[in-house]
Amino acid sequence: MTSTRPDPTLQSLLNSHPNLSYEGSKGLVMEGTPLADLARQHGTPCWVISADTLRRRARALKDAFEAKNLPVHCHFAVKAQDHQACLTVLAQCGFGADVVSGGELRRALAAGIRAQDIVFSGIGKTDEELELAIHHQIGQINVESVEELHRLDALARKLERRARIAFRVNPDIDAQTHSKITTGRAEDKFGIAHDTVPALYRKTQTDMTGVELIGLAVHLGSQMVTEAPFRRGYERIASLVRTLRADGLHVSDIDCGGGLGIAYRDEKAPPPSMLAEVIAETLGDLNVQLHVEPGRWLAAPSGVLLARVIDVKEAARRFVIIDAGMNELVRPAMYDSWHGILPLHTPEDTTAGDVVDVVGPICESSDIFARQRRLPSLKKGDLVALLDAGAYGTVMSSTYNSRPLAAQIMIDGDRQAVIRRRQTLDELLAQEAVPDWLAHP
User: What is the pTM of this model?
Assistant: First the structure.
């Protein structure tokens, strides 16, 4: 879908990404590291993520809550960026993990995050995944349905353990974001309907011996850039807490979820102080332990995807064809999302340029990163960076069209390391087996 709003200028993109700048012959640098050097050294397409940016944003988020004197436990949403190097950086910043699968749970543990600092969310936890969580005695399991509650209670009793749980409430609130990343409406698959919570809460606390019900959880959606849905959702949770307590029930924890958005394009993205203020005003007087689960806000601006121009095709439109495709970064194809694109060389004129479609090599019409975007003139062999790719980039990448997974690099001050080497085609093919009866003669 083509927007009628004007695109941000190159300078406005730089202004909104303080970790990026142009430095003469070095071109585009990220936290002082020339990105063109990384592209030449490691090839393209190539992911780059900055440990310094992760740390700085983690500190900014914690500072926002400390300024409000809110006792908040921060759990990073692993689904946004699951590499163990990134999880290790955030663990060192005092973050726990919010996981949505047994695989993410194992990743978090392997990265040194303590089991007691892990929250397990998600609508479709298998018995095996629940047993894994019970075995490690993780900090909290967010129960999504009555059916899951009964399965979990039975499994915990079988294992002679007691699982700490919260009810994920579906508050029937529209997050006012993309429909595919909205999770708190009645028609969405997530959570327990808010009006059924009081009766279920009482039954659980009085009758179930395999679980310890400590509170409520809510997550309204992702990439939320306005205050109103946060406020409405948390007000509904606060009302539920008061109802439960009036009935003599114990509530000690509230998991506020995540969803804080960023400025991909020209959104008026709120700072974390907005979220802290809304939580303070709606939940701050309840004397509970608060939890938040940021993902995109921390990781997206910390990463870029580097690509090389394969060709510039002159047709009904001017197509800049790059060697990164929707198999690397699927968000534009899946969500019609907008990502800034900057050349790695320093443009001679930041205001001049060509109106182009930036497309990938995948054999799909949806493999498009930008439509009718004005960019500095690009030619075959030039390098570009796709911005805000640190979240929902590598984790959603695939080998579609038999394209091996791209390399991933972490930069940290003047240090750099390959944290995931480029997959070779031989390695990709080696994962397959041909049955004996089909073996080549």
Answer: 0.93
